[in-house]
TrEMBL record:
A GO cellular component entry from the record: plasma membrane
Lineage summary: Bacteria, Pseudomonadati, Pseudomonadota, Alphaproteobacteria, Rhodobacterales
Residues covered by the TRAP C4-dicarboxylate transport system permease DctM subunit domain: 12-423
Positions in coiled-coil regions: none
Entry membrane topology: Multi-pass membrane protein
Molecular function GO labels: transmembrane transporter activity
Transmembrane segments: 6-33, 54-72, 105-126, 138-165, 177-198, 219-239, 245-264, 276-297, 317-346, 358-384, 404-428
UniProt KW keywords: Cell inner membrane, Cell membrane, Membrane, Transmembrane, Transmembrane helix, Transport
Pfam families from the UniProt entry: DctM (PF06808)
Organism: Sedimentitalea nanhaiensis
Identification of the protein by name: TRAP transporter, DctM subunit
Compartments reported by the entry: Cell inner membrane
Highest taxon in the source lineage: Bacteria
Function as written in the Swiss-Prot or TrEMBL entry: Part of the tripartite ATP-independent periplasmic (TRAP) transport system.
Length: 430
């Protein structure tokens, strides 16, 4: 009973505006105090759970991949990637939109953060698309929609977080993310191509590039592809662990940025500070989630819910659809990391009892969570795009309208991944 009451209290606290990590840790402490009746024991429990959650070697993967992504973003490699891909698709109706999707897919393979993709391509792709005659609503929607690939195509910060929460293999989750990521990118590209033929007025214009992007050397795409091949190839080839891959990738990205003279001392300091901020925020959330999950296990709630789920006969498919619906609904008011921290510790034991593969469950979770980045009122990618283009007069409503078709496509791909687990597990060999 105390466990269920704590769940309700956490929900109320989060929706009232309390920071998610504070709500998780604080109410978990009160729950342990109520269960044991001893303040010192509850405090020791919280301290031990908090220390254990970030003392593992695998947690080092977070700051390393964040640093690599920021180095790539600061060095302008995202801009180069878009210019080169867009130039090769001039004759394609809706080609700049498809180029934005492809550029986001490539950029995702070395960043792992959707927000970084949204910020970079808002500045790079939207002006070029609008100048070429693309409807501004379509342009901003394409950037917001395709930015979600950053959290799906490995390396992904959300997949790393899921691995930490479930004590599962980061490498397997990264491998599992390739299939859904490519399917989603393909679906986005097909939609934009069909839209270009069905409603050509949305893409009327010369469909040409301009300015410095027109003369960007094609060879500049080699560092981006090489960096992705180095990191992901090293993980999948068994050359190094995901944590070591983060270190190698960060070093290579920094080396490229300095060698190309794209980053100076001020840029390096800015990256270091941003890496610290992001890592500290993620660390704080993980500490709160660890305390919360241990309190839940101690209270018996996961076992109780698992018993109910098995007895109800809902089955693996029914549970995944129900879970995805709940997570997508939570995405309208909570950020991605917070949703995972609240739901995964409770749902994961159920999936194990129902025989759901951890990689399949992880990719379903990330896809459902990412839909929330595009839906009102708290579509984080939408807010980033609008904030970046505020001076150009872009409104939130405009970005939400443009992103709505992409959210729908994501829902369709999510259903496909649930019904066909091999999309996520095929490359893992399960």
């Amino acid at each position: 009973m105390i466990g269920y009451l704590s769940l309700a209290a956490i929900g109320v606290a989060i929706y009232a505006g309390m920071h998610v990590a504070v709500a998780l840790a604080g109410i978990s402490f009160l729950g342990m105090w109520a269960i044991t009746g001893k303040t010192a024991l509850a405090l020791n429990f919280v301290a031990l759970a908090g220390t254990d959650s970030i003392a593992e070697y695998s947690f080092g993967v977070v700051p390393l991949f964040v640093l690599m992504g920021l180095a790539v973003s600061e060095s302008g490699l995202g801009r180069d990637t878009f210019a080169i891909i867009a130039r090769s698709m001039r004759g394609w109706r809706g080609g700049l939109g498809v180029a934005t999707v492809l550029s986001n897919a490539v950029f995702a393979a070395i960043t792992g953060i959707s927000i970084a993709s949204a910020a970079v391509f808002s500045r790079v792709a939207v002006p070029q698309m609008v100048a070429a005659g693309t409807s501004r609503t379509v342009a901003v929607g394409t950037v917001a929609g395709s930015s979600v690939l950053g959290m799906l195509i490995p390396p992904s910060l959300l997949l790393i977080l899921f691995a930490i929460l479930t004590d599962s293999s980061v490498g397997d989750l990264f491998l599992g993310g390739v299939g859904p990521g490519l399917v989603l990118a393909l679906a986005f590209g097909v939609y934009l191509t069909l839209l270009g033929w069905v409603r050509p007025a949305l893409f009327d214009g010369p469909r040409t590039m301009g300015g410095a992007e027109e003369t960007t050397p094609t060879v500049l795409i080699v560092p981006v592809l090489g960096l992705a091949a180095l990191v992901l190839g090293g993980i999948y080839g068994g050359v190094f662990t995901p944590t070591e891959a983060g270190a190698v990738g960060a070093a290579a990205a920094l080396g490229l940025a300095f060698a190309m003279r794209r980053i100076g001392g001020a840029g390096a300091w800015r990256m270091a500070v941003q890496t610290g901020h992001i890592t500290a925020a993620v660390c704080f959330l993980i500490v709160g989630a660890s305390i919360y999950s241990r309190m839940l296990a101690f209270s018996g709630v996961p076992a109780s819910v698992t018993q109910w789920a098995v007895a109800s006969g809902i089955g693996p498919l029914g549970f995944l659809f129900l879970f995805a619906l709940i997570v997508a609904a939570m995405g309208t008011i909570l950020d991605s990391s917070s949703i995972m921290l609240v739901t995964v510790p409770l749902a994961f034991p159920i999936t194990q009892e129902l025989g759901i593969d951890v990689v399949h469950f992880g990719l379903v979770t990330v896809l459902a969570v990412e839909i929330g980045l595009l839906t009102p009122p708290l579509g984080l990618s939408v807010f980033v795009v609008q904030a970046t283009l505020r001076e150009e007069g872009v409104t939130l409503g405009e970005v939400f309208r443009g992103a709505a078709p992409f959210a729908t496509i994501m829902a369709v791909v999510l259903c496909a991944v649930i019904l066909v687990p091999e999309i996520a597990t095929g490359l893992v060999g399960r």
